[in-house]
Description:
Elements: H1 2-32, E1 55-57, H2 74-78, E2 84-88, H3 104-107, E3 125-131, H4 140-144, E4 150-152, E5 167-169, H5 170-178
Antiparallel strand pairs: 1-4, 2-3, 3-5
Protein name: NADH-quinone oxidoreductase subunit I
Domain 4Fe-4S ferredoxin-type: 59-89, 126-155
GO molecular function: 4 iron, 4 sulfur cluster binding; metal ion binding; oxidoreductase activity, acting on NAD(P)H; quinone binding
Amino acid sequence: MNACKTVKAVSDTVKGLWSLVVGLKVTGKNYVSPQLTIHYPRKTVDNIETYHGHIELVGKPKEPAVPRCICCMLCVTSCPSGCITVVKQKEPKEPARASADAPKEMLGEVGEKKAPPMAKPAKTPSRWKLNYNLCSLCGTCVEVCPVKSIRFSNDVYIAGYSQDDFVYDLLARLREQAGEGEGDR
Length: 185
């Protein structure tokens, strides 16, 4: 019986030593190989062009502080998470026309030219919010935008203390990126 226990103890010792050798081999191999990760925040990543963070608005080429968005609401309706809120800018009120409802013969305007049609209202958003807490980064909004007004940001180093820190006003962000401050508008 003692011989069996001794053989088993030696066998367990050899297995344990072999496991130690295998572990040291893995550790040594990774110790001498080049480092693949960085020690954040001591170092930062410099190849973030392919990183897809939260979405952001794209400005017009001649007016970078004005978004390309035409308020078609495709991004809002296609978002499975419901994290996008776009409010269309209100159209300016038309001046009251007294003669609009009255027949022209009564007003003595027969034969006069019609007034030119009102200019089309600008299709710009007055509010563009993203709740990044709900976003699933599916990219559907980026794909469906007909004017390419939305893109992924390269904002790798975002951090916050509460959920409110991740609710973005993307119009303000676009103005800030274009160099306009809050007081400029």
